[in-house]
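Work Package 3 committed the consortium to producing structural models of liganded targets before the mid-term review. Because experimental data for this complex are still outstanding, the team generated a predictive model from sequence and the ligand definition alone, so that downstream docking and mutagenesis planning could proceed in parallel. The input record is reproduced below exactly as it was submitted to the modelling pipeline, together with the SMILES string for flavin-adenine dinucleotide.
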Amino acid sequence: MLLPSFQYHEPKSLNEAIGLLGEMGGGASILAGGTDLLVNMKKGKLSPKNIVCLSRVEELKGVKRDHGLMSIGPCVTAADLKDREEVKSDFSALAEGAGLLGSPLIRNLATIGGNIVTARPAADLAPPLMVYGARVVLKKTEGERTLPLEEFFLGPGQTSLETGEILCSIVLDSPPSFSGGGYVKLGLRKSLEISLVNVAAFLSLDGPSGPVRDARIVLGAVAPKPMRSSSAEETLIGGEPDERLFQIAAEKAAGDARPINDFRGSAEYRREMVKVLTKKALVKAYEEAKLREWRRWK
Ligand SMILES: Cc1cc2nc3c(=O)[nH]c(=O)nc-3n(C[C@H](O)[C@H](O)[C@H](O)COP(=O)(O)OP(=O)(O)OC[C@H]3O[C@@H](n4cnc5c(N)ncnc54)[C@H](O)[C@@H]3O)c2cc1C
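The resulting structure, written out as tokens with the ligand in place, is given here.
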């Protein structure tokens, strides 16, 4: 399978990239790691006339921490996210998701920006980012806007990204003390596998043993886009964090899920797995919330 022909552009700054996209209107595609775009082009699903490659735009790489915020460049790869100390310590569920994405070869290429913009319901980075309340910063020639990530996703493969817009950064608030996250993925294989179900959880506690001050649960691959489980979150907030509470929340999450039957698994099996994975993600989040406090006291 050969790639269709196209004009290749390699801007060296964000302004140049935005300018090029502005001039080309809808006839251009952005290229980051290429693990989605090039595959779709080879399959003949996409044939953009112009490709704007971001590999030389330094402003879109790297992770910064400033004034209680972490800002992640869209060209940071899954391999980098998985290994970065500041991501592992403050946003462990994101590091876990990155470590479970594809294979080492794919992780070396796949970027966080590409993973978000592709908007696959089963993507590995969206649920962890959503539980940490991530926002996306989008820029085009006319200006800049910031959106909560959960509002960015519209449906499978659909986002609110406008023509000529670039995802420029992903912003996260530094997590409070007594808080922790967890991510669990279920596939049919152990690697190179798109999730059958995935779940991310975040818990923030009033103290080392509770009660739960804030909770977020995001379910992947069981709806047209990654979804918050509001019933599970409501159950958790104000409760004492223990096995019994986590079990009730897991059952609520299974009730909220909207899975479908397909060749990889039945809706019934997926719903059952939401229950199992939610409980596991909550246990991980709680273990980390306790550990974070222990680290702070040291
Ligand atoms: C074998 C294989 C296994 C995979 N396994 C997994 C898996 O386990 N989990 C998973 O979640 N995904 C998986 N994927 C999908 C893919 O690797 C990820 O979605 C990856 O993160 C996409 O990033 P990329 O940099 O390669 O994106 P690209 O292919 O470069 O781009 C993807 C889309 O995003 C757009 N885009 C990229 N960056 C920007 C930006 N900054 N602003 C605006 N638009 C942008 C592009 O125009 C394109 O439409 C797999 C893919 C393959 C081929």
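Reviewers should note the following from the model. The pocket of flavin-adenine dinucleotide is lined by residues 29-37, 39, 74, 101-102, 106, 109-111, 113-115, 117-118, 123-124, 161, 166-167, 192-194 (CB under 6 Å). These observations will guide the Year 2 experiments.
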